[in-house]
Amino acid sequence: IDGDVIVYQAGFASDQTSYLCADGYVTKYKKDAVQYSKVNGCNVNTIIKNVVPEPLEYCLSSVKKKIGGIKNSIDADSHLVLLTGKGNFRHTLYPHYKANRDKAHRPHHYDAIREYLKDIWKADEVTGVEADDALGWHQFKDISINGDGELDAESCVCTIDKDLNQIPGWQYNWRSDDGNGQMYWVTPAQSIRFFF
């Protein structure tokens, strides 16, 4: 299970964000605040972002439901939650890797969710790589040991990250187009095609 995605999804879902315009108008979305400010002659640069997190217990309850729902959907009898830890070999190869991402843009309960995943769900924090890399390694190990047929495989990559479609085997996207989650099989040929 891609724990990084769960941290951000559950964390940001529990952050109640609003935007305050100069004349006191409040809206949930920044684009609406910008549009309102322009139409009503307010300075766009004075818009104030306000984040009020839900109680931590609500957030962690969402995490518990998400993992339980994933396990139930794929009929799993065991699980492994993976989290990205310190370091990333990609920064050695290319120092600007993901440099456009705001490292400060994290959910309010970011650290608490990660600790909860490690303490309660026994999440494995990988070092020097990203959680996606470890998801792929575990899946490849399963394929190499058990075979690359649908009935042979014993693991399933659970994530919403489409990049993992370059890994053969079972995949589960809990946020598929229909909103109900989708489990599907990626053949070795399909994984290579997706990569290219």
Describe the 3D structure.
The protein has 196 residues and is α/β, with parallel strands linked by helices. The chain is 40% helix and 17% strand. It has seven helices and eight strands; from the N terminus they run αββαβαβααβαβββα. The protein has a three-stranded antiparallel β-sheet. Strand 7 and strand 8 form a beta hairpin. Helix 1 crosses helix 3, helix 1 packs across helix 5 and helix 3 crosses helix 5. The radius of gyration is 20 Å and the shape is elongated. The two termini are 24 Å apart.
In DSSP terms (H or I, runs of 4 or more residues), the helix count works out at 7
Largest sheet: 3 strands, antiparallel
Strand content: 15-25%
Write down the overall mean pLDDT.
91
Secondary-structure class: alpha/beta
Distance between the termini: 24 Å
The percentage helix is 40-55%
Principal-axes shape call: elongated
Tally of strands: 8
- The side-by-side strand order for the widest beta sheet comes to 2-1-3
Keyword list:
196 residues; 3-stranded antiparallel beta sheet; 40% helix
Q: Short summary of the structure?
A:
This protein has helices spanning 3-14, 30-39, 56-73, 89-93, 110-119, 131-146, 188-195, and strands spanning 15-20, 26-27, 48-53, 82-84, 124-126, 156-158, 169-173, 182-186. The protein is of the alpha/beta class. A hairpin with an 8-residue loop joins strand 7 (169-173) and strand 8 (182-186).
